[in-house]
Design a protein that fits this description.
This protein has 229 residues and is mostly helical. Helix content is 73%, strand content 0%. The protein folds into 2 domains: 4-127, no CATH class; 149-224, no CATH class. The protein has helices at residues 4-7, 14-32, 38-46, 48-52, 60-66, 70-73, 77-82, 85-103, 107-126, 129-170, 180-198, 207-216, 221-224. Helix 2 packs antiparallel against helix 8 (85-103), helix 2 (14-32) runs parallel beside helix 9 (107-126) and helix 10 crosses helix 11 (180-198).
Length: 229
């Protein structure tokens, strides 16, 4: 959650930003959905939401189902995800959650909900639709997880990499390694031995290719191996 002490120095107060949220939601509604008077937007679109929101979920589709009619619930997921009103309803729901948090003296929660309201308002203003926004968010999480996983694997294999490179440089046969492939065959047993003793899981099918990649990346690979694989 946001630090409330930081927010007190913001040029806009919480109430100012909440008012701006409603104004932006109305602006995007009349462009993306239909043109209606402001008081009608408040009465017909916004006011029913607090009564429908059980505040039990942060999942976008589950939030939307709370305020969907039976006819809307019967439609497929894609129809709801493509609807221009979906991000507007999500933003408005978080707006009312922010209002409830503010009125019950939970300013940190109010700021947190308002951030979500502004995010979905931005989605609505960009015209991306719910499906695109969710996919972009999911892709970002996948990229972060993949990068984190790759970093952890690299750190776990570092002792094996160090051993392979050291052996290739200093423990080759007297005549030297005739090729990088030859070097892989020479160091492979020792690498597997270290992996076993250190409890580092490796793929027996992939380990030779992995060692080859390590040796290929050595700055002096061209000098170490007289022939390339």
């Amino acid at each position: 959650m946001r630090d409330y002490e930081v927010q007190k120095g913001h040029p806009y107060s919480l109430n100012d930003l909440m008012l701006l949220t409603v104004q932006h939601l109305y602006d995007v509604y009349v462009v993306a959905v239909k043109h209606i008077p402001g008081d009608e937007f408040i009465e017909d679109v916004l006011k029913p939401l607090p009564r429908l929101d059980r505040r039990e979920t942060d999942q976008p589709l589950e939030i939307l189902l709370q305020c969907a009619t039976d006819q809307e619930k019967a439609k497929d997921y894609d129809a709801s995800a493509r609807s221009p009103v979906s991000p507007i309803l999500l933003s408005a729901t978080y707006y009312f959650r922010a209002m409830h948090a503010r009125d019950t003296s939970h300013p940190d929660a109010a700021w947190s909900y308002l951030v979500e309201a502004w995010y979905w308002c931005g989605v609505a203003m960009a015209g991306k639709g719910l499906q695109v926004a969710l996919q972009q968010a999911a892709d970002g999480v996948k990229r972060d997880m993949a990068a984190s996983g790759a970093k952890k694997r690299s750190e776990r294999f570092q002792p094996l990499r160090d051993l392979a490179c050291d052996l290739a440089r200093n423990s080759a046969p007297p005549s030297g390694c005739s090729s990088r492939n030859h070097a892989v065959q020479v160091v492979n047993p020792k690498v597997l031995e270290l992996a076993d003793s250190a409890g580092i899981k490796v793929s027996l099918k992939q380990i030779e290719r992995t060692i080859d990649d390590w040796l290929k990346a050595l700055p002096d690979a061209a000098q170490l191996f007289s022939k390339r694989k």
